[in-house]
Specification:
10% of the residues lie in helices and 35% in strands. It is built from 2 helices and 12 strands. Strand 8 (111-112) and strand 9 (115-121) form a beta hairpin. The chain starts with a strand and ends with a strand.
Length: 159
């Protein structure tokens, strides 16, 4: 089976920019006999005719082409000919593999003994102090207001 993503031109769905993006609206499955080969224009043409219009790009369920399998809300980059995840935060940027990376490296300490840190990004904290951004709580903290920890680059420090 072949898979195709329907794209819709939209202003940046994240709201971080006013750029126009081609955003995945849905992904459909098409019988292989309608598609001569991977990324063949006939498959896209078949989708346009069958679904009465739209912009269509084939996506690979096995990630064999166009970086990764398209999902609703992802962005198709026509210059790179890839499906990319939406930018998660305004401060994040694409790396050389076209994956979004935070401006601060992900923490190296993710657990202490049997206790895991539940780690998340806090964009407001980063905007206030660009040396901060990663924050965590401990998996065994069951208090009504769990203690928050900031990553200082080498260790977790309670707020």
């Amino acid at each position: 089976m072949a898979h195709f993503a329907e794209l819709k031109a939209m202003t940046d769905p994240t709201g971080f920019t006013s750029d126009s993006h081609q955003v995945v609206q849905r992904v459909v499955v098409v019988a292989n006999d309608e598609v001569p080969s991977d990324m063949h224009v006939d498959g896209e043409t078949w989708c346009i005719n069958f679904f009465k219009g739209g912009i269509w790009k084939q996506t690979s369920y096995n990630h064999n082409f166009r970086k990764q399998y398209a999902g609703i809300g992802m962005v198709y980059d026509p210059v790179k000919d890839k499906f990319l995840n939406s930018q998660p935060y305004a401060s994040w940027s694409l790396d050389s593999n076209d994956d979004w990376q935070a401006p601060i490296t992900y923490p190296t300490v993710t657990e202490e003994g049997d206790v895991r840190y539940i780690i998340s990004w806090n964009e407001e904290k980063y905007n206030a102090d660009n040396t901060k951004g990663w924050e965590a709580t401990k998996s065994n903290d069951e208090s009504e207001t769990p203690t928050k920890y900031d990553w200082n680059g080498t260790a977790w420090v309670s707020e």
